[in-house]
């Protein structure tokens, strides 16, 4: 078996006596797209920065692209593209000027050819003379991605790359990412969007600095052990009041005129849901648990590392 692109074990990072990353272990196979999920402040960005060599772990070990994260961090950085949450290029320069600047930073031997090739690859050639500050969110995102892949990295780290971008631009961005992965690039992407998580080959969920689960989407949903029931009818709002806090009921969520009821104790929850449906004139059926159901459950069960 080929060596994973990312194989880190027991990563720890502390700030001021607080442990923000608590013994996180993560494995990502080469040429795959891995989703990294969790609420704000959960340790995703800190973990990503340790993986790419920008931060030194206080504990743990591992290899990225076959290189030791402690002893060879400089070499890891040279083979990694890192796209941050915030647009960080120069808004008073054009697209082409920004890419020429980045090519200089990487000391690319033929900067002119590298810029032209990257512009063409990301569909930016026609806009090459537009100021970066005048671009829409989707085009800024595309420019930021172009800057990250100019030096042909083997690993691409994306920290919530589609925040504030419209659905069409998000979909086009993910088409680009899958195209890059098909060429052998490994991608680790943090996101809050469930539809984006479902586009990943594998996902990992971190909460309060601790890795809670990882695997394919199907594996994560299966391992959560949730049951989801749907109540439908004009009495759904009344049924919600009956079900909150009922035995076996962990979540109650409205979806239009339907009510999703979720929990780990299926028999107890079903009994409570049947009683509520009968009392309010709602129909009742079973449904597949969603990735969102699983993550809401995990968030509720995680323990705050601030306490």
Q: Would you kindly provide a written description of the structure presented here, covering whatever features stand out?
A:
By secondary structure, the protein is of the alpha/beta class. Helix content is 36%, strand content 27%. The longest helix is centred in the middle third of the chain and has 16 residues. It has 11 helices and 14 strands. The strands form 3 sheets. The protein has a 6-stranded mixed sheet, sandwiched between helices. It has a 4-stranded antiparallel sheet with strand order 2-1-4-5. A 4-stranded antiparallel sheet has the order 12-13-11-14, with helices on both faces. α3 packs across α4 and α9 crosses α10. The chain is globular and about 75 Å long.
Number of helices: 11
How big a fraction of the residues is strand? 25-35%
What structural class do you assign from the helix and strand content? alpha/beta
- Rg, nearest Å: 23 Å
Shape verdict: globular
Low-confidence stretches: none
Quaternary structure annotation: single chain
**Could you tell me the number of beta strands?**
14
| pLDDT averaged over residues | 92
- What proportion of the residues is helical, as a percent range? 25-40%
H-E order = EEEHEEHEHHHEHEHEEHEHEEHEH
Across the major sheet, the strand order is 6-7-8-3-9-10
The largest β sheet comes out as: 6 strands, mixed
Distance, first to last CA: 42 Å
What's the layout of helices and strands?
Blueprint: E1 6-15, E2 18-28, E3 33-37, H1 44-51, E4 59-64, E5 67-68, H2 73-78, E6 80-83, H3 95-105, H4 111-121, H5 137-149, E7 155-159, H6 167-182, E8 186-190, H7 194-197, E9 202-207, E10 210-215, H8 217-224, E11 227-232, H9 236-243, E12 251-255, E13 258-263, H10 266-280, E14 283-287, H11 291-301
Parallel strand pairs: 3-8, 3-9, 6-7, 7-8
Antiparallel strand pairs: 1-2, 1-4, 4-5, 9-10, 11-13, 11-14, 12-13
Helix pairs in contact: 3-4, 9-10
């Amino acid at each position: 078996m080929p060596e994973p692109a990312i194989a880190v074990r027991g990563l720890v990072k502390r700030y001021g006596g607080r442990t923000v990353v608590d013994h996180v272990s993560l494995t990502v196979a080469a040429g795959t797209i891995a989703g990294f999920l969790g609420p704000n402040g959960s340790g995703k960005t800190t973990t990503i920065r340790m993986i790419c060599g920008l931060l030194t772990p206080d504990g743990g070990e591992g290899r990225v692209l076959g290189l030791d994260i402690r002893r060879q961090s400089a070499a890891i950085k040279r083979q990694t593209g890192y796209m941050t949450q915030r647009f960080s290029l120069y808004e008073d320069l054009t697209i082409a000027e920004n890419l020429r600047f980045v090519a200089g930073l990487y000391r690319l031997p033929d900067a002119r050819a590298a810029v032209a090739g990257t512009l063409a690859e990301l569909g930016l050639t026609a806009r090459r003379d537009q100021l970066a500050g005048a671009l829409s969110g989707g085009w800024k995102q595309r420019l930021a991605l172009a800057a990250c892949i100019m030096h042909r990295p083997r690993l691409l780290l994306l920290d919530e790359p589609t925040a504030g971008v419209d659905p069409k631009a998000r979909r086009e961005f993910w088409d680009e990412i899958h195209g890059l992965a098909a060429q052998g690039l490994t991608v680790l992407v943090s996101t809050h969007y469930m539809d984006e998580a479902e586009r990943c080959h594998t996902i990992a969920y971190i909460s309060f600095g601790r890795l809670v689960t990882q695997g394919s989407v199907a594996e994560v949903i299966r391992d959560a052990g949730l049951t989801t029931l749907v109540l439908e009818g004009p009495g759904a709002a009344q049924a919600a009041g009956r079900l909150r806090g009922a035995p076996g009921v962990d979540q109650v969520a409205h979806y239009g005129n339907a009510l999703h009821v979720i929990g780990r104790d299926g028999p107890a929850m079903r009994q409570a849901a049947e009683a509520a449906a009968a009392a309010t004139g709602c129909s009742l059926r079973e449904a597949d648990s969603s990735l969102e159901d699983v993550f809401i459950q995990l968030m509720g069960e995680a323990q705050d590392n601030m306490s």
